[in-house]
């Protein structure tokens, strides 16, 4: 199971924090460690374990963005690849930056399809 907070996804069963940084910026590590502590403070009453003690693993070899606009798209692509492929060989995904316009168009088409399907189902049209 994956838990998303900020730009970091955590596989709960592995008891690690996996950090996917689409900008590959070493200064991003400190805020993530702060998020880990805040999450522990917020959930300490509910969770029987100290999640702040889990090791932080920075996922290496990821496709990276070349602007400040595509981080959300990269997060969705990272998670889609992880869910579909399981352990991912990120070297086969290096072209996302140059394909960003097509990736955005495909996502919009998928969202429209899901929305249309949910509307049809909601109004009793099951195909």
UniProtKB/TrEMBL annotation:
Keywords: Hydrolase, Protease. GO terms for biological process: proteolysis. InterPro entries: Papain-like_cys_pep_sf (IPR038765), Peptidase_C48_C (IPR003653). The keyword Electron transport does not apply. It comes from the Eukaryota. One of its GO terms (molecular function) is cysteine-type peptidase activity. Residues 14-109 form the Ubiquitin-like protease family profile domain. Pfam families: Peptidase_C48 (PF02902). The keyword Ribonucleoprotein does not apply. SUPFAM superfamilies: Cysteine proteinases. Transmembrane segments: none annotated. Belongs to the peptidase C48 family. This is Ubiquitin-like protease family profile domain-containing protein.
